Amino acid sequence: MEAIIQVFISGILSGGIYALASVGLTLIFGVVGLVNFAHGEYLMIAMYFAYWMFSLFGLSPYISLPLNLLVMAFLGWLTYKTLMERMLDSSHSIQMLLTLGLSMVLQNLALMLFKADYRNVRIAITNSTLDIGFLHLSSARVVAFLVAIAASIALYWFLQNTYLGASMRAVSQNSKAAMLMGINISRTYCLAFMIGTVLVGLAGLLLSPIYPVYPTVGVSFCTLCFIVVVIGGLSSIPGAIFGGLFIGVVESAAGYFIGPAFQQAAYFILFLFVLIFRPNGLFGKNIG
Questions:
Q1: Which helix (H) or strand (E) holds 214?
Q2: 106 alpha carbon, distance to own chain's centre
Q3: CA distances (Å), origin 234, targets 45, 140, 172
Q4: Which residue from 220, 52, 183, 167 is spatially nearest to 120, judged by alpha carbons?
Q5: Radius of gyration of the chain (CA)
Q6: Cα–Cα distance between 28 and 205 in angstroms, integer?
Q7: How far apart are CA 176 and CA 173, in angstroms?
Q8: Environment class of 139 (CB within 10 Å of its CB; exposed 0-12, middle 13-18, buried 19+)
Q9: Cα-Cα-Cα-Cα dihedral of 134, 61, 27, 171, to 10°?
Q10: Over the stretch 68-91, which tens digit does the pLDDT of each residue have?
Q11: How many CA atoms lie within 13 A of 157 on its CB side?
């Protein structure tokens, strides 16, 4: 019984980070209507940024967090203004090809600059554990979970209780009606894309003391984010949070009861069942 509880808690801790990375993708799709296959590459960039801040200046990822988030916000703004804004009226297939191309460019750029080596951020918290009775939890994962859930809840509060959040929800439901009501559509799209990029960057920063960074690290996390988004609901923030936690538990349980080799298979099978029986996701499709 103790082992099962340990597996469950470990899954929840991992799921919190999956949820944080996924809510950014949910926000971008829900508000902008953009299927962003380059989402994982921004996680990779944030992890590299955290690594180089640590290697060159001795700054832990938690200390370099404000600068990291500013850089991610700028990259989100730059990407939207230079690429995404020009493709909003194009079909989803064109948008997907654009973001796939951007993903490959960023991966290969990282490969040219940093090679394919695995790089690690080793700080005091990396190898420390938090012992609560029979539970032995990674301190870095506990911190990552707490920050990730706090950020996800803060995003939900922002969408529900601020004018900009209401604007995003209005645009996600009917952009033409929102424009007629005086909402600046272009600014709302840009802000949503920037927030989504910052959130996945925060997820990358939190992962940097736990996982090594390499040029294709974003690919697996991007795939996982899409699975979480579909399971939770294409534009549902609570759905993305629940989906991330659920996938974390499924992954952890599959690794313990079946074997690590079957972890991905477990949540892919779950993904297929949701597509067949609940194609709109568990929480529907409305943003917020």
A1: none
A2: 17
A3: 25, 30, 11
A4: 52
A5: 19
A6: 20
A7: 9
A8: middle
A9: 140
A10: 999 999 999 999 999 999 888 888
A11: 6
- Convert 31-61 to b/e letters by CB count within 10 Å (16 or more is b): bbebbbbbbbbbbbbbbbbbbbbbeeeebbb
Cα dihedral: 233, 276, 244, 224 (round 10): -110
Two tokens, residue 13: 């801790």
Interatomic CA distance for residues 98 and 36, integer angstroms? 9
pLDDT digits (tens, 9 = 90+) for 34-69: 889 999 999 999 999 999 999 999 999 999 999 999
List the beta bridge partners of residue 138. Answer: 129
Amino acid at 283: F
Q: What global pTM score does this model have?
A: 0.92
Task: Count CB neighbours of 197 within 10 A.
Answer: 31
- Residue type at position 209: P
Quote the tokens at residue 105.
Answer: 């460019």
